[in-house]
């Protein structure tokens, strides 16, 4: 039995792994189909760098290993898209900025883990300039187009990875997530997006946007795929000062849905969330209520957390970080980015200290929430995907920021119309979130 490489490039990871293991296709054929799709879809502006020769060579090597019965790991031969914020040896890392930064000498830590599992790297995907944006806008490589909703924004900052995966250019994708940069484009492009617990995946070799919050993120077509890739990437890295050294593994997926204490964000309109998003979220919660049995979700108001104000404090720190880390490459930056960064130049060290103190307060407040709840449920985005070329909404990341600012894991399930259902758990509850997300996806029309 054979499987069409062109069909498999658009299939969930678990189906691709089965096909490769059973010999229904080869990595070379699958990689070739992905590269052909990338070449056809140049209008999407999803890629900043494509290494066709390197990818095909890696695919052939994978096929040789499988023929000998010696695959490297669970991802051997799987074509993967990587956001252009991670170092891949022999490729440039642009971070969406102009000019040629030179070729990376070594892999980022998560890239090394993927390479060790046999993944095939197709190249680098486009992102917002300096990873500072939520709609996929880049004046140097072109704005990322949404292959699912062509008249709408693709989301950002990891919009290129989301567009590439949604268009069948790769089987899974690696993104960044500082304040929602994986989950927002996942929602806009109809994908599953996961931001792990801060420090669970090393950020070494990832171009910094805000080290305090920077986190690699995962994009996939199915919840199950997240569970397959996360263990490959997770683990302590002494080279990352924020890497999470655990005395025990991630909490096991042992939640009983009917006994869960779920908090459902209820004051969405007061938070400025679009009416269409509020209506959609209410309808979804009505469909999934049966999952929780007698332990009905509890209405929760998060306005007292003042997430939007804390996110703005984080943006000040992010602007300062970009100036400090990438100053040598900002000469050709857009007027918009320079204007944003100038704000940080006008601030003082005391302003930065106050911003850090505000973020610390948010961490404590969210910890207290998880003394009352096991999981929080809320929309992924505050508004539907804006029209292509429209002004970037100021509050688009307010709902994803809740988890990011506290270092919590969060998972976004796709909903029709470029929306998403977001699950947030306490630090370390990643596997539990993945299991619950799989259950919710099976009873709700998530498009997953």
């Amino acid at each position: 039995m054979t499987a069409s490489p062109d069909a498999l490039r658009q299939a969930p990871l678990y189906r691709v792994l089965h096909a490769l293991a059973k010999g229904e296709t080869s990595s070379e054929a699958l990689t070739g189909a992905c590269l052909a799709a990338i070449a056809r879809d140049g209008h999407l502006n999803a890629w900043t760098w494509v290494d066709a020769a390197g990818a095909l060579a890696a695919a052939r090597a994978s096929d040789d290993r499988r023929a000998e019965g010696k695959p490297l790991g669970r991802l051997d031969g799987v074509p993967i898209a990587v956001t252009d914020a991670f170092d891949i040896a022999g490729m440039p890392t642009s971070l969406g900025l102009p000019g040629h930064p030179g070729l990376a000498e070594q892999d980022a830590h998560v890239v090394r883990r993927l390479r060790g599992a046999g993944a095939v790297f197709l190249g680098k995907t486009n992102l917002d300039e300096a990873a500072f944006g939520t709609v996929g806008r880049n004046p140097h490589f072109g704005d990322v187009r949404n292959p699912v909703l062509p008249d709408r924004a693709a989301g950002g900052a990891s919009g290129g990875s989301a567009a590439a995966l949604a268009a069948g250019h790769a089987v899974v994708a690696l993104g960044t997530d500082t304040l929602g940069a994986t989950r927002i484009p996942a929602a806009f492009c109809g994908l599953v997006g996961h931001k792990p617990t801060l420090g669970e995946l090393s950020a070494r070799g990832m171009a910094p946007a805000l080290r305090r919050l920077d986190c690699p993120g995962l994009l996939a077509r199915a919840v199950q795929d997240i569970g397959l890739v996360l263990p490959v990437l997770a683990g302590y890295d002494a080279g990352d000062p924020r890497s999470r050294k655990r005395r025990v593994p991630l909490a096991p997926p042992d939640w009983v849905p009917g006994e869960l204490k779920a908090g459902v964000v209820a004051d969405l309109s007061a938070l400025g969330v679009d009416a269409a998003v509020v209506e959609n979220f209410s309808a979804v919660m009505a469909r999934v209520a049966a999952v929780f049995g007698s332990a009905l979700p509890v209405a929760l108001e998060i306005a007292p957390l003042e997430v939007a104000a804390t996110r703005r404090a984080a943006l000040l720190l992010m602007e300062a970080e970009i100036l400090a880390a990438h100053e040598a490459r900002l000469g050709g930056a857009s007027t918009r980015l320079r204007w944003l960064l100038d704000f940080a130049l006008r601030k003082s060290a005391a302003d930065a200290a106050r911003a850090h103190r505000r973020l610390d307060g948010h961490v404590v407040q969210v910890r207290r929430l998880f003394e009352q709840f096991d999981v929080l449920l809320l929309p992924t985005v505050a508004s539907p995907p804006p029209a292509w070329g429209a002004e970037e909404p100021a509050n688009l990341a307010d709902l994803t920021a809740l988890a990011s600012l506290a270092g919590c894991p969060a998972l976004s399930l796709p909903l029709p119309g470029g929306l998403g259902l977001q699950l947030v758990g306490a630090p370390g509850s990643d596997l539990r979130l993945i299991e619950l997300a799989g259950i919710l996806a099976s009873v709700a029309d998530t498009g997953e």
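DSSP finds 14 helices and eleven strands in the chain. The CA atoms of residues 313 and 355 lie 5 Å apart.
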